[in-house]
Design a protein that fits this description.
alpha+beta, elongated, 17 strands, single chain, 5-stranded antiparallel beta sheet
């Protein structure tokens, strides 16, 4: 539907709405009017999400939604966490429907989330930390904001599992890793153009060994299907890499590791290379192994020593015939990817 704002004041807003296609779109517009009022009149907490409608009455055939409607919103309650209003839709000077106690929850402003929600083809959430390598942190994202992000990043295939999960931690891991991966892929195929593919047009699958691969929706297929990807997550931190050749990436939280871990994970030659005075160095060697295992497509297979770090050159680790670049991410994480 098309919307034209006529009047606005401290207690409400009046618009003209032209209904076009899609059943229920007039109801959607009611929620949008509450959000529009917040954006036009408030400085903070301008992101909103509809949560309840108290009452909806029709005074004409509800299936006849063609024409131009005058939409009047009257705000009945406005707090830091909610906005509530009553609304009247008129057509040809006659009341068509009345909605009472339409409630939207207000959230702390998160401009990137809001931008992606409105125009995902021009905005992304993940940050490029190195060429073709993307990172997303959901550590500071309110739980309620996740619903908005899921609408943009969780496609039909992922949704079958995502929306059935009861474990919030598992949902976050899926969502945040998809944000990193899909932003990496759609930025890559945009090739510097401002307009990108929509996140939900990119699908993530796994082969029989668990190695991820991506596919594109309809015309995106030829641009996406040949790409190689890898992703990893640790808590609220997710990373992804995309390339035209096989790649691998891993992320780990920097924490103490005991002697038993060292003996299982590293050869004697590797242990001689590790600077044990640097707590992060052990994890740096480990992410290099994991990244190589992911690139191979079969993982470590319970034998991390098969991927042996042969030499260290600054932030580059030589693992067998592979080179892995590593980076400290913030104060608590190490990320490494094959180059």
């Amino acid at each position: 539907s098309a919307i034209k704002t006529l009047r606005i004041c401290a207690r409400g807003i009046a618009n003209l709405t032209e209904q076009k296609d899609g059943k229920g779109s007039l109801l959607d517009i009611m929620g949008q009017q509450l959000g529009l009022f917040l954006h036009l009149t408030q400085e903070e907490n301008t992101i909103s999400f509809p949560i309840r409608l108290g009452e909806l009455n029709f005074y004409a055939d509800y299936s006849d939604q063609k024409g131009i409607f005058e939409h009047t919103l009257i705000i009945t309650r406005l707090s830091d966490t909610a906005i509530v209003g009553n609304m009247v839709l008129k057509r040809d000077g006659k009341i068509w429907s009345v909605a009472k106690d339409f409630v939207c929850q207000r959230f702390v402003n998160d401009r990137p989330v809001w931008s992606v929600s409105l125009k995902p083809q021009y905005h992304k959430l993940a940050q490029e930390i190195a060429p073709r390598v993307y990172h997303y942190s959901g550590a500071s994202i309110p739980v309620n904001i996740q619903a908005m992000m899921a609408k943009r990043y969780i496609d039909v295939e992922d949704g079958k599992r995502y929306f059935e999960l009861k474990d919030g931690r598992q949902q976050r891991e899926i969502l945040y890793s998809r944000i990193a991966l899909k932003d990496a892929v759609r930025t890559h195929i945009a090739k510097g153009q401002d307009e990108m593919a929509y996140p939900v047009q990119i699908f993530l699958y796994h082969d029989e060994n668990g190695k991820p691969f991506v596919r594109g929706y309809e015309e995106l297929g030829e641009r996406v299907d040949g790409l190689h990807v890898s992703l990893a997550h640790k808590g609220d931190e997710s990373v992804a890499i995309v390339a035209e050749h096989p790649v691998g990436i891993d992320i780990e939280k920097i924490e103490e590791k005991d002697e038993s871990f060292l003996s299982v994970a590293f050869t004697e030659q590797e242990r001689a290379l590790i600077d044990k005075s640097n707590k992060g160095e052990i994890l740096r060697f480990w992410v290099a192994k994991e990244a190589c295992g992911k690139k191979s497509g079969v993982g470590l297979k319970g034998d991390p020593k098969r991927y042996e770090v042969k030499a260290v050159e600054g932030d580059i680790l030589y693992v067998g015939d592979e080179k892995v670049r590593t980076m400290k991410l913030g104060e608590d994480h190490i990320v490494g990817w094959t180059i």
